Amino acid sequence: MATNINTILSWFKTGLKPTQAQFWASWQSFWHKDEQIPQSNITDLTSTLNAKAEKSQLEGHNHDPNAHEEAIGEKLDKGGYTGTAKDIDERIAAIENPDRVLKFGTINIAGLAITIEANAFAWVLNKVTYLIPDAFTETIPAATAGMYRNDILVGNQFGQYSIIEGIEAANGEAAAEPAVPTGTIKLGFISVFGTAIASFGSTPSIEKTTMVDADRIVIDDSADSFSKKSVKWVSIKTSLKTWFDTIYLTQNSNQEVSGVKTFLAGKLGLRNAANTFTSFFANSNTAARTYTLQNRNGIIADNTDLATKQSTFTGIANYIVKSLDSSTLISSRLFDNGTFFGIGTYRTPVKDFTLGNQTNREIGVENSENTTKGRDLIISAGKTINFIIDSSFVKISPSVGFPSYDMTASSNNVYACNASKIFKQSGGTGPFLDIGIVTRNYRAITSTITNDIYVSVKDGDIYKQINESGSFVALGQTPRNYTGMCSSPNGDVYASVSNGDIYKQTGGNGDFLPLDQTIRTWGRMAAAPNGDIFALDSSSIYKQLGGVGDFIFYKTGAYGGIVIAPNNNLYAAIGINIYMQTNSDGAFNLTDSVLAPIWGMASFVNGNIYAGDYSNNIYVQQNSDTGIPNLDGGTLKLKSGTGKGNAQSKIEFITGQKLSSGTDMQIETLRGFIDENGHMIWTNMPTFSDNSAALAGGLPVGCEYKTATGDRKIVY
Questions:
Q1: Which of 47, 79, 335, 685 is the most buried (most CB within 10 A)?
Q2: 580 and 674: one domain?
């Protein structure tokens, strides 16, 4: 039992001597260190401890990222932060403008050579945006034979590309990609197998392809000052479904969308003019079915419509169908395989028009009515013309057999060049023949008013042939990628360079000097009769007025070939389509379409336009009205069937025999024939003594007759 402290103090005053009982009482008033003190004997200890958090709660709180989200967000002081405003700005910028790829471009592969075009990729590193204006080319090493290697393409903080090699392995999965170096960002991958590239792309080769509900996507929350928030995939699916259900048909309820309604009983209803659902499609499918409607406007036929329609049938290849009756189709006796046509033949015809050999055949006009005269039958061979039928570009047949990079025409001939040869068509007619020049990668060709021929070589020199004869002599020009040439009426010769300038040789003499034009992907060129010079780039046409000054924008379009006709009409090709601008002014109108993209074009002195494609053909638009002189007409040939041995083979001439006036029918009468010996035999040549007797006997002037002694005469 505890003794009051004041009582104990009174026992131990100066001069007093405490008793044993007092001494014990004083010590018993305090807790000895060997004794346990109950919580209940310590004032407010229990209530104080009850107000504290458990250890497990504190540890969980320390690891909870959202524990102080609201409190921290409402603090107005620095919260003990010792950093600078610059530190905070850098951290915010890293969140708002993180390292990332802004634009994935295309990785081009040729063997082990890697090529990336200009402005293909864009990325952000350390808040700096990089867009590379230059093309990139690098040849990567081959992997060991039978081994795989996964390389990566990265962009760095100096605005450059690099290819980082991976580690080789016996299979593609084991060949791990290399780590992305510090200060770079991954742009693409290149998988190598031995000496070949197995796969490549600008999409990361390792990516997550299957989303799960717990996955998160970071967004900018517009409702909370665009602070960063994460959204679970399960929430995205729920939100999208709710939204989609407002604009698309659902699977478990009746839906109405713009007059079309689905019914759970398996029907599809359509509104009628009264805006009510009275027409329905009904079906009872026992399995999944697919119904395809025709891709054109029209009316769907029903059973009533089909009741009187002819049924389909199993035909015979190349035989034309005919109707046996109102509902049955069968094969006719007409044969057509696209090359030969036959009527009633047993075997495949080998003539343009063939009749079966079952019996004698006759081709003729059907009989007229008894009040109409018989109709003429005319058989004619083909005739040539001296006028233009149409403005189509007609393919030279047979195909020339080579691609045409560029074309030109002198006053005498037409030329075409490609990656190895130069070809010439003499006089604007006939085939294009190899002129036998040394093999080079020829890219552009032109002719001058003096018939000098210029031709350029890719990444090489320019060569010249004087007056279309002799050797092509190198002019000693700086090697460049010359892609277009033309010659103006004043004798100046132009040469364009892809990704470079345009150069000119004045008057056909001296060096080709730069004109200081804007660097473009210059291509084909053409000169107009008035001296205007036209040049193509990859997306436009440019024009130099009168051969003076800069080339200024003229027309948008990815034109591949261009030429100016003698009448100043401008022709230009985009892909397979050829357009014409009348008098080099106004709209470009589609003239024709051909089979393959056009590159080279030329205009001959007679106005004919040539267009060579990047395949094996050259096309010609005939603009010369009279055409080529002294062309033969087609020969009309009548052939009798040949026999065997000494048998007959005839061509007979039969007409009707004139009667007296009336309605009696004339009788077919054989007038003459040419036999197998080539003899012309008349079956009933009239006999008269002389010309007067023949005229008196009714023979017309020009008619043949014979005398009694067999002399043949002509009535005059």
A1: 335
A2: no
Do 70 and 100 contact (CB within 8 A), yes or no?
no
- Answer yes or no: do 240 and 274 share one domain: no
Is residue 514 domain-resident? yes
- Give the separation between CA 655 and CA 377, rounded to whole angstroms: 13
Give strand pairing partners of 473. 464
How many other CB atoms are there within 10 angstroms of residue 580's CB atom?
18
If asked whether residues 494 and 599 sit together in one domain, one would say: yes
Cα distances from 545 to residues 123, 505, 531, in angstroms, run: 43, 17, 7
For residue 87, what are its two tokens? Answer: 């530190």
| 296 lies in some domain | no
Report d(CA 71, CA 129) in Å as an integer: 36
How many whole angstroms from its chain centre is CA 219? 37
Where do the DSSP E strands lie in 488-605? Answer: 493-500, 502-505, 513-514, 520-521, 525-527, 533-536, 540-544, 552-556, 561-564, 570-574, 577-581, 589-593, 598-603
Does the predicted model carry a pTM greater than 0.85?
Answer: no
| Residue 113, token pair as written in the block | 């050579």
**Per-residue pLDDT tens for 199-211?**
888 754 445 678 8
Are 430 and 521 in a shared domain?
A: yes
Q: Which H helix or E strand runs over 69?
A: helix 69-74
| Single-letter amino acid, residue 710 | G
Contacts of 585 (CB under 8 A, 6+ apart): none
Range with lowest mean pLDDT among 136-145, 204-213, 572-581 = 204-213
Question: Residue 333 sits in which domain range?
Answer: 319-355
At 148-174, the pLDDT tens digits run 899 999 999 999 999 999 999 888 777
φ, ψ for residue 473 (rounded to 5)? -105, 130
Check whether residue 424 and residue 554 sit in a common domain. Answer: yes
From the CA atom positions of the chain, what is the Rg in Å? Answer: 49
Domains in the chain, number: 6
The terminus-to-terminus CA distance of the chain in angstroms comes to 179
Residues 159 and 262 in one domain: no
End-of-domain residue from the set 355, 374, 404: 355
| Same-domain pairing of 223 and 170 | no
Share of residues in the chain with pLDDT > 70 (%): 86
Residue 360 lies in a domain: no
Residue 652 DSSP code? E
Cα–Cα dist 25/19, whole Å: 10
Same domain, 608 and 661: no
Amino acid at position 518, single letter: T
Residue 124 CA to residue 183 CA, distance in Å, equals: 11
Residue 81 lies in a domain: no
CA dihedral 700, 706, 711, 713 (to 10 degrees): 0
Task: Give the residue from 139, 169, 201 where a domain finishes.
Answer: 201
The C-alpha atoms of residue 502 and residue 498 are separated, in whole angstroms, by 9
